[in-house]
Amino acid sequence: MEKSFxxxxxxxxxxxxxxxxxDASKKKDELATLRYGLDHGIKVIDxxxxxxxxxxxxxxxxxxxxxDRSKIFLISKFYPYHASPELERQSLEKSLKRLGTDxxxxxxxxxxxxxxxSETVRGLKELQKEGLIRHWGxxxxxxADLEELFSVPGGKNCFANEDLYNLSERGxxxxxxxxxxxxxxxxxxxxxxxxxKGDSIRITNNLKIVARAHHVTPHQVMxxxxxxxxNILSIPKAGNVKHMKENIAAMDIKLTPDExxxxxxxxxxxxxxKPLAMI
Length: 279
Ligand code: NAP
Hints:
Elements: E1 12-13, E2 15-16, H1 27-39, E3 44-46, H2 55-64, E4 73-78, H3 85-99, E5 104-109, H4 117-129, E6 133-139, H5 143-151, E7 160-164, H6 176-183, E8 186-190, H7 205-214, H8 218-226, E9 233-234, H9 241-250, H10 257-266
Parallel strand pairs: 1-9, 2-3, 3-4, 4-5, 5-6, 6-7, 7-8, 8-9
Helix pairs in contact: 1-2, 1-9, 3-4, 7-8, 8-9
């Protein structure tokens, strides 16, 4: 019996790869960055067939070559229009080839499309049975989608759901996170900086005050904030070793209850249901 997300100790920091592998001039830095992460205890890498139409998976494949595969937790995703048993298998085979591996740790439906969830799950169960994927899950699912998923045969075996989660986008705290927690479905929060180079999450005075108190950058506070409860996996994308180092160091920032209140003043908790935000 495979372990659940919680039993697998996956919460904490993972490495996002959207946009990585697309620009040859950045390749050296990107490889060094992913390897720096692996060398410093980050085991999760999140990629997708969509990212650069396979270029991201190729670069990830190059980065992990020579590492002990069993120490890496590799996530990839398939397009919604590939979410049927036959097409899932074809997508997976191509992803595995690009990644240079013979299995994925987690295979996610990237977002909901028009394929029937019962068919999507049927295909994923087959791939799992054959050992080609250890777990399967979904991404960009709201509570209603998750409920529908749980109603199809085998749907309750969903390992994780990956949704947008950062200071500016806290909607999932209202219902998605508690729903998943109650049912043991892992939560992966993507775009902890809102895909930002600095201004996509407002750097408020309070963020600066908290950052100064910990001798870190406001971005590190944003990331530490996503990790504050120790129950989710947060997957920032870093394109250089400096950012990767900062992101790793952010795991050690312990925000005090007063600091969390300060941050809440600028980025309030949701008090009602909001439509699921996604990028
Ligand atoms: P993000 O992680 O929120 O932000 C990435 C941006 O932040 C990059 O410009 C990066 O710059 C910068 N950055 C990284 N570390 C930093 C630091 N310590 N200080 C300052 N800036 C820093 O954006 P994202 O790539 O959209 O999301 C992360 C990952 O989530 C993706 O790569 C992907 O794997 C996943 N994702 C999944 C979905 C989905 O639908 N499931 C959607 C979006 C994203 P540099 O590149 O210069 O380091």
